[in-house]
Design goal:
Elements lengths: L1 H17 L35 H14 L3 H6 L2
């Protein structure tokens, strides 16, 4: 009788602990190894920027950082 209870307890512990295993982590797709300025695939790009033009990309990021994301310049405007 004691062996039966031990078997049931071991089985219950195995079932309870099986839920604690980690699921395998798989990525959805491979990441692109291209530079960010070389991949224009959306309609959210600026009109003056051409794909592969790194200088225009850097100018656009600098302009956006100064005009749109700089709280000091935005707060001083009346």
């Amino acid at each position: 009788m004691r062996a039966a209870w031990m078997s049931v307890a071991a089985l219950a512990a195995a079932v309870a602990l099986s839920a604690c295993t980690e699921k395998p982590q798989t990525s959805g797709q491979r990441k692109s190894d291209q530079a960010p300025y070389a991949t224009a695939n959306s309609s959210n790009t600026a009109g003056t920027w051409k794909e592969g033009d790194s200088k225009a990309w850097e100018r656009q990021l600098s302009t956006r950082a100064q005009n749109g994301q700089n709280e000091y310049s935005r707060a001083s405007a009346p």
